[in-house]
Amino acid sequence: MAYDYSRYLRNEKLPHIWCPGCTYGIVLKSFIRAIDGLGWDKNDIVVASGIGCCSRLPGYVDFNTLHTTHGRSIAFATGVKIANPDLKVIALGGDGDMTAIGGNHFIHACRRNIDITVLVFNNNIYGMTGAQYSPTTPKGAWATTAPYGMPENNFDVVNLAIGAGATFVARTTAYHTTHCEKMIKEALQHKGLSVVEIINACPTGFGRKNKFKTPTSMLLWMKDKAVQKAKADRMSSEELADKFVIGVLHKEEKPEFIESYDSTVGLKKGE
Amino acid sequence: MAKNVQFMMGNHAVAEGALYAGCRFYGGYPITPSTEIAERMAERLPQVGGRFIQMEDEIAAMASVIGASLAGAKALTATSGPGFSLKQENLGFASLCEIPVVIVDVMRGGPSTGMPTGPSQSDIMQAKWGTHGDHPIIAVTPASVQEQFNETVRAFNLAEKYRCPVVVLTDAIIGQMMESLVIPEPGELEVIDRIKDPGVPPEEYLPYDMEKDINPMPPFGAGYRWHVTGLHHDETGFPTNDPVLHTKNTVRIIEKINKNYDDIVKVEEFYTDDADILVFAIGVNARSAKAAVLEAREKGIKAGLLRPLTIWPFPDKHLDKIISANNIKGIVVPEMNLGQMTLEVERVAKGRCEVEGLYSLMLDPILPSEILEKIRRFA
Ligand SMILES: Cc1ncc(C[n+]2csc(CCOP(=O)(O)OP(=O)(O)O)c2C)c(N)n1
Ligand code: SF4
């Protein structure tokens, strides 16, 4: 029997706004399966987003949902989580949301190690506003604001998260649907700040002008370039030169922020 | 029972007022001359089961209080001019999404980094119009340490009652000075909580019922699974591009405040009964204005003071009534800026009397003698 997503969707809000060939819908499915696999109560789940194409996702899922301002999902989510630590809080956003305008919130949430799961939908471009370059646009790639090619260096989301202190960091792609589900599920289970970078394809904004003739070619690119962590560990840096590694890339146990706070300040509970 | 009287700083009184009102979350970023509010909350919140966080900037601080409020907590943030500028983005979000939060702005000299330790009243218009778009705002203006406490409680009550962000607009003098404060007993001051139970099953709940001024607000986690967005939304909370709905909802959220003028707008009238010259002043200048009015009375001049404790919505009705009933000759408006309230007073006066601003950027309260001089010109 086909998997029934409708239990988690606000079915009356469909169809979604995403372009044909956009990979966000595929990731939405992996996201739903990951949550379903945990058996959590829908009432306990809060999904916060910023502004952008992927940030429309909360409107489609039947949880407590919060569509905030551009880049601010983590900051809103931080308030939600601290006010009620029993809630399962997920903050998501695009590469623009998370590494440009919301970069400060991203690194500080990683540093605090607050128990929130951060999903970065990285399509290497500003999708919603029509293909301007983002901090993850590869050098030389075309964007409407980089008509001669991207002149800036770019961020590696995973390294940024690890450097800032996140205690669970994974990378996956929209192509690897079961892997994506697994990474999100593990991130949700992790106590502390977890980050999953999900490589996505924006055929409308990025693909067309960057030599990807079809949306499928972008998925095949993910298939071709992604290397599972276990395999990558056995490869030389030359072999990995034009590839990227997927899997759980960093995991450590560290005291979670709210627990540390409560014990540090001797919080009087139940008042 | 003996009263609980304490000698306290204005900023600390804000913190204590917030706790009295039931505030259990503070998200902030330090800035002079407001920092003592954060420091006091950091120390006091854990003692009453609440939590404090110093966020990475004021944008995040404002976002965090909205998030905490959505999770059901009464939440406070405090700042001064440069930080108030940063909070404007998400203050607009709270206005549109009708999220109760309290923001304190301890005004200092601006623009930009300006005069960090210098008191000012130059954010009056920013409090009203700082965020983009047509939107409602309530702002209260305490003038003493006791009022820092009481008005903070009232700010929380108004936020909870009207599902609206409320600004406590105070200044470096009132925030930094020390006076005796009577801490009210629990129950002595009214404390209002938002309606959390919609009284209908989740599938019937409308977070933004357009036929109602104020809708119940169940906290995230209570089983209602509603959607909150900074996009214009319909009664269910989901985005809409319908210009008719956009108009209707914008008017609704503004009118829910205007309609309740009598409940929201609070003023002090000092010798206004028979006054034919009026002083209109808030905060620290209202203290000087009182002294000036008393001196004028000694000299046989019939001066009076109208002191708003709510500056937004503007006290139009009160002012209008005094102008017409008393046949006012002139109004003096002392303010520590280059003229913000004066324009509003002129708007209400509609040419019926003279209105004269008394402006100062000297970082000291305007003196009673300066106000008296202006009063005498109208006498
Ligand atoms: C404060 C602010 N600045 C700019 C914008 C315009 N804007 C909307 S979405 C967006 C970028 C979206 O890109 P990304 O976050 O990568 O998400 P995507 O659309 O690619 O999913 C921008 C710049 C905005 N809404 N708010
Ligand atoms: S513009 Fe790009 S990111 Fe946005 S929906 Fe279309 S394909 Fe997806």
TrEMBL record, chain A:
It comes from the Bacteria. Pfam families: TPP_enzyme_C. This is 2-oxoglutarate ferredoxin oxidoreductase, beta subunit. Residues 51-198 form the Thiamine pyrophosphate enzyme TPP-binding domain. The keyword Cytoplasm does not apply. GO terms for biological process: cellular respiration; small molecule metabolic process. Coiled coil: none annotated. Its EC number is 1.2.7.3. One of its GO terms (molecular function) is thiamine pyrophosphate binding. Keywords: Oxidoreductase. Gene3D superfamilies: 3.40.50.970. InterPro entries: 2-oxoacid:Fd_oxidoreductase, THDP-binding, TPP_enzyme_TPP-bd.
UniProtKB/TrEMBL annotation, chain B:
The keyword Repeat does not apply. It holds the Pfam family POR_N. CDD domains: TPP_PYR_PFOR_IOR-alpha_like. It is an enzyme of class 1 (oxidoreductase). SUPFAM superfamilies: Thiamin diphosphate-binding fold (THDP-binding), TK C-terminal domain-like. InterPro entries: 2-oxoacid_oxidoreductase, PFOR_II, Pyrv_Fd/Flavodoxin_OxRdtase_N, THDP-binding, Transketo_C/PFOR_II. Residues 16-243 form the Pyruvate flavodoxin/ferredoxin oxidoreductase pyrimidine binding domain. Its EC number is 1.2.7.3. GO terms for molecular function: 2-oxoglutarate synthase activity. The keyword Nucleotide-binding does not apply. Keywords: Oxidoreductase. It comes from the Bacteria. Residues 275-352 form the Pyruvate:ferredoxin oxidoreductase core domain. This is 2-oxoglutarate ferredoxin oxidoreductase, alpha subunit. It comes from Deferribacter desulfuricans (strain DSM 14783 / JCM 11476 / NBRC 101012 / SSM1). The lineage of its organism: Bacteria, Pseudomonadati, Deferribacterota, Deferribacteres, Deferribacterales.
